[in-house]
Amino acid sequence: MSIADTAVPTHRPRWLALDKLGVMIALIAIAGAALPFALFRANRIVPGETRSLLDALPTFQSTLLIIFLLVGFVAALLRVPVRAKLAVGFVVLAALFILVGQSATYLTPPDNTFARVSPGAGFWLLVFAFALLVTDALTRLRFAPLVRIGILIVVAAAFALLLWSGSWNDLSMLKEYATRAPAFWAEARTHLALAFGSVAIAVVIGVPIGVLCYKVRPLRAAVLNTLNIVQTIPSIALFGLLIAPLAWVAANVPGASAIGISGIGAAPALVALFAYSLLPVVSNTVVGLQSVSPAAVDAAKGMGMTGWQRLAGVELPLAFPVILTGIRIVLVQNIGLATIAALIGGGGFGVFVFQGIGQTAMDLVLLGAVPTVALAFAAAVVLDALVEMTSRGGRRV
């Protein structure tokens, strides 16, 4: 027997194995590092000049960022502990957000109020890669709902601190905000009112319709098919279709104009968003009620509960997590769709998006798009946590 035959087999440590999703994240990060980190323009509308990561920052800061990126690359690529992946992902994201502001300060000539510096494609791709790393780690760790909400609050507070510190003041998106701050907050209130208001109205009207469809089975197919047809109409077309009837109502119905109903503006936008919200709310109400255990209903009957008492005290509470899932879908959808309201004078963050497109000012587009995406993401995280907290057998802490 040879020495080779008697040798003890060796195994690689588990952390040296490749993470399958991490390979994709690492490839995205490599592409991001190779693309321009920042974009310099002499003014807000002229074509920009790209700056690589090495050119966009002073030597020390660019070296520091490269080190962070290499650590993040290794953490994503290998099967290191998930908590380590989460920590590294957050650290790399923090470094990216802090240093992109420093890049704007570094590239802007002194006393030049016309120059604009924007994050480049490489920055956004790097943010996407390490946000994917953080999201994957959070999914694997399966934190309790309240912990996830706490992490969201901490991240929001850290970002607010970054903005308050002035580190981003030289970024062109913040310069656009500085000249439009009152308008920004006014449109933010409009956007929130459209998104949350339409969902609130849909819940108040849609849940009773869903209950009715559950109780009266012949009505169910007709209602759901009608709402499904509404859902298939493109958003811009639906906004346009509502202009004429609402203009007629405003002109012919006493008091309609006084309460804000008109052919253009917030009224048609609110009606359209409400129409889009009905199908998920109604269908999830029906599905939720259908999923209630017959044993629970029989037990309620045995206790002498009437039909309405069973509905209010047993069936709706047990169906609530499914109904809340429909509300989550609708809210995230409407936060995005409310952007289109600007096309008919409805206001919201879409005002900046379409103004920026018209002026070829991409930073103005970002001023409307970034808060919309952040708001939709935050709403999804919070409502996902609430769904889990209210689900039967879900963790409560």
UniProtKB/TrEMBL annotation:
It is a multi-pass membrane protein. The chain crosses the membrane at residues 21-40, 60-80, 87-107, 113-134, 146-164, 192-214, 226-250, 256-279, 335-358, 364-387. Residues 188-388 form the ABC transmembrane type-1 domain. The keyword Membrane applies. SUPFAM superfamilies: MetI-like (SSF161098). It is found in: Cell membrane. GO terms for biological process: glycine betaine transport; transmembrane transport. The keyword Membrane applies. Gene3D superfamilies: MetI-like. Keywords: Membrane, Transmembrane, Transmembrane helix, Transport. GO terms for cellular component: plasma membrane. PROSITE patterns: ABC_TM1 (PS50928). InterPro entries: ABC_transp_perm/SBD, MetI-like, MetI-like_sf. Belongs to the binding-protein-dependent transport system permease family. PANTHER family: GLYCINE BETAINE UPTAKE SYSTEM PERMEASE PROTEIN YEHY, GLYCINE BETAINE/L-PROLINE TRANSPORT SYSTEM PERMEASE PROTEIN PROW. This is ABC transporter permease. It comes from Devosia epidermidihirudinis.
